[in-house]
Amino acid sequence: MTAILLPWLKLAICGLLIGIAGSVLTRHADVIARLTGLSRSWIGLVLLATATSLPELFAGISAVAAADAPNIAVGNALGSCVFNLAMLALLDELSRKEPLYRSIDQGHLLGAGFGVIMIGSAGAFLLLRAQPETS
To answer: Is the pTM of this model over 0.85?
Structure first.
């Protein structure tokens, strides 16, 4: 019984620590934006996105290098994208004043466009890999 619960307990502790760190990172990113004069959109797109993607990067590297499980690495990366988009849709739905997408800066269009290109490329590569090889 303990052998079954221990990994779940470790996962819950890691999730809690990541949740706390995310809140701290957001506050510090806002301070960096104010002190440097850079826009919050730019700080979120570059600094905050990089910092919050590091756990996924290390999980992907570990999945491929240590566990020889590339499916876990791909599932982690694509699942994270889907989860993040689902959170945006939920936040948009829960917005009381106006839709979330009307209240954000138009500077996010560049990031959104790049994200669409990257996710589309990943999907295309997965589809091309699924095609049987012909001689």
So the answer is: no
Please say whether the beta carbons of 121 and 129 come within 8 A.
no
Q: Sketch the domain layout of the chain as residue ranges.
A: 28-116
- Spatial separation of the C-alpha atoms in residues 57 and 60, rounded to whole Å: 5
Q: What would the pLDDT profile of 46-84 be if each residue is shown by its tens digit?
A: 888 888 888 888 989 999 999 899 889 889 888 888 888
* Cα-only R_g, the chain: 18
Confidence of residue 20 (pLDDT cuts 50, 70, 90): very high
> CA distances (Å), 4 to each of 7, 11, 16, 20, in order?
7, 12, 19, 26
Residue count of the chain: 135
